[in-house]
Amino acid sequence: TSSLPKYVLGYGIDRKKLNQLILKKAPDIDPSLVNDAADTVIERLLDNVDNYQHLIVLGELNGDGFIVISFGQEAFGDNCEDLKQKNIRPPEHLDAWQDIMRGPTVFEFCSF
Fold first, then answer.
1. What is the pTM of this model?
2. Which of 2, 14, 99, 106 has the most Cβ atoms closer than 10 angstroms to its Cβ?
């Protein structure tokens, strides 16, 4: 039987950063609409990820939950330090999204 990995190396979508960016770019937005706007941005971002090459999983960092875009199949493992040492190039098309990402870093794997 195969067991689930303990860790994943990738980018985490940081909802707090995203909400702050939305408020900064659209200061007149109704605060009750910020979460809907964030959901739309996240959907568009995830639509551009090749989920076969870069699995999208749920992860945790310092007790906070994240949608994590993995850096490929080799970005999963049971040893946090080994993953931190791996020299895996993040997907280039995500460079434009750096303002709303946490990482690259190793997250505790939660689920697929």
1. 0.92
2. 106
